[in-house]
Amino acid sequence: MDQTAPVLSVNHLAVSYKTRKGDIDAVRDVTFTINQGENLGLVGESGCGKSTVAFAMVNFLGPNGRVTKGDILFKGQQLRGRSEEELRLLRGADISMVYQEPMSALNPSMQIQDQMAESLIAHRGFSKNDAYAESLEALKKVYMPDAEGVLRRYSHQLSGGQQQRVLIAMAMLNNPALLIMDEPTTALDVTVEAAVLDLIAELQKKYNTAALYISHNLGVVARVSHKVAVMYAGEIVELGTADEIFHNPIHPYTMGLMRCLPDVDAPKGTRTLHPIPGRVPSPANLPSGCIFAPRCEQFRSECSLEHPALVELQPGHQVRCLRRPKDWEGVRQIWKMADILKNQAPTERNEAVAETVLNVSSAKVYYPVPFKTVGGLFGMEKRQYVHASDDVSFSVKRGRTLGIVGESGCGKSTIAKAIVGLEPIYQGQVEFLNVDISKQINKRGIDSIRELQMVFQDPNGVLNPSYTVGDQIAFSLKRFHTVPAEQVRAEVERLLRAVKLDDSYYNRLPRQLSGGEKQRVGIARAISTNPAMIVCDEPVSALDVSVQAAVLNLLVEIQNTRNTTIILISHDLSSVRFFSDDVAVMYLGRIVEIGPCETIYHSPNHPYTTALLAAVPRPDPDAPPSRVRLGGRVPSAVNPPSGCRFHTRCPFKIGPICEQQEPSKIDMGAGHFIYCHLSPEKLINSAA
Q: Are residues 336 and 267 in the same domain?
């Protein structure tokens, strides 16, 4: 192979899929190169063809997919036309891939050691013992805690972060020349994501590996990539260095993606999100001319007549647009207008007279697990419980938003479901509008149910596929007698318009809607009773950045026009900063810090909050990486640590007191409270 050639060179690649309606071109005219030690980030909305490009590299397109045009050169050698046997020798040895969902990539019936050894035995002729030893070293290189124990486990016995580390270790076993990563951190907590990204950067630097990194998270791409390619509807519309793409974007689509991003450093009310109108077109029904024209704010008549070519503006920076260089500066100024509000002070609101809508006092939600036998074969059976939410207390005033953040398994969603009555409360009290609603939903009064609604993470799980959108919203109106029967249809149409959907959606079925449209229907149904409070459980986590921006804007508008109280559950700290007035930080079932959003984001004091905020990836390639990282994993909620539950991972642990005594509540002033053994002075110094 040519050692001077780029590790990967893709020239005018086209991929099509055979369907009942004929061949559909999913990818067209894609060209890029990746050199040794270089990372190319591939970004774009869902349906733009990013994963299809990756699967074409390794011939994983499926029986109905095929490369119809172009070249795929690996170290100067053509991959197209290679036999399956030849490709199999390359895959796992010279070319490795890390998939988005580790559970689907790991064999549940094999121990980790056997899955990892398989690659070494097949590609490098190792004996089983030598392969096990090499696999152990690979897990240690990815900083896997208890690497020896992990080798003997099955995939279902590992956390999501551990599974992803196993996949990365497997991918790096044979020191591949090319590493393809398809959304490798999407399902991970922000703290685990940060550790995995650190690991990828370290391994890439050590082995000088070329990498193709696919993601819809622009913050992650900015952090790991040297070059960035922006895809839209099967084509690359802009390609350049990470610095050029993030600081000097040219294509309207690239600018649109940037304007959709909430800023973790911008206080509430100082940032405006600008969602891209419309949606990505189907590959079977592409518009004429420029494919982005129907959604482009800079549309001109010639855009629908002529398809633009990918032209080079300067060495290394290419764009697919009909506008000329003299037009770009004016458009860039429009793009930068999105940041003007960041210099303004957040709007002050008088909250002194606002009533308390929700008051949660010492709420505990426990889940029973199978009995455990103690005292030998004929011993007694001991009931164990998952301490999902343990002694949680907070209150929310009318018209305010409380954001609840933390890693997976910390109890965020559990406390939300307990509030709305979907989970039984083991102990404690929930008071809503001065009424005790600690009972489950089937035992609550209809007034409490009407005034307290919920927006779920997955709209597919709450929309009945057999009923139209209009009928499902109308059912809620009829159930709670919100309007007279003869006004139901008009009210449904008004609600649809309120969530930016027109009247035609009334008769559509859920399968005819996009993910963002389904979430808007869920919001319309939630506000149909004009509730005093809405609980939103990860309402934008599964959505593209443009749809996410539209949903967040919609929630802000609903709150401002209806004075609705909202609880926002999210692992996305940027979205929480954009939308929340107050923040509660949870860890292993308990609140460790709570207070005004601006106080906590500007100067986090609890070590766990500091680590969470430090792990948030910024969409800026020049942003210095934080050195604050959490080690280890979240302990089991069945048998949580004694004393401070965070002491097993805390970088500022001060001794036995952290292990033996529960921390008391520290009042930092202005409604800001922290649960920690460190004194207020040491808390401030440790955060700095």
A: yes
Q: What is the mean pLDDT of the chain?
A: 86
pLDDT in tens, 446-486: 999 999 999 988 888 889 999 999 999 999 999 999 999 99
In whole angstroms, how far apart are CA 131 and each of 106, 116, 170?
A: 18, 8, 12
- Three-state DSSP at 391 gives strand
User: Can you give the residue range of the structural domain that contains 144?
Assistant: 106-173
CA separation for the pair 63, 244 (Å, rounded): 39
Looking up tokens 């490798």 gives 184
**Collapsing DSSP states into helix, strand and coil, what is residue 197?**
helix
Q: Are residue 423 and residue 461 in the same domain, yes or no?
A: yes
Residue 340 has pLDDT above 50, yes or no: no
Tokens 């893709």 sit on residue: 10
Listing DSSP states for 109-139 in one string gives TS-HHHHHHHHHHHHH---HHHHHHHHHHHH
d(CA 178, CA 37): 9
pLDDT at 568: 95
Strands of 268-423, DSSP E: 310-314, 317-320, 356-374, 380-397, 401-405
Write down which residue in 173, 197, 229 finishes a domain: 173
Question: Residue 521 and residue 266: Cα distance in Å, rounded?
Answer: 29
**Quick one: which of 237, 240, 339 has its CA closest to 295?**
237
Q: Is the pLDDT of residue 344 over 60?
A: no
Nearest to 36 by CA among 213, 186, 178, 237: 178
The mean pLDDT value for 645-666 works out to 90
DSSP 8-state assignment for residue 379 = -
Q: Contact at 8 Å (CB) between 6 and 176?
A: no
Residues 633 and 592 in one domain: yes
Q: What are 524-576's pLDDT values in tens digits?
A: 999 999 999 999 998 887 678 888 888 899 899 889 998 999 999 988 899 99
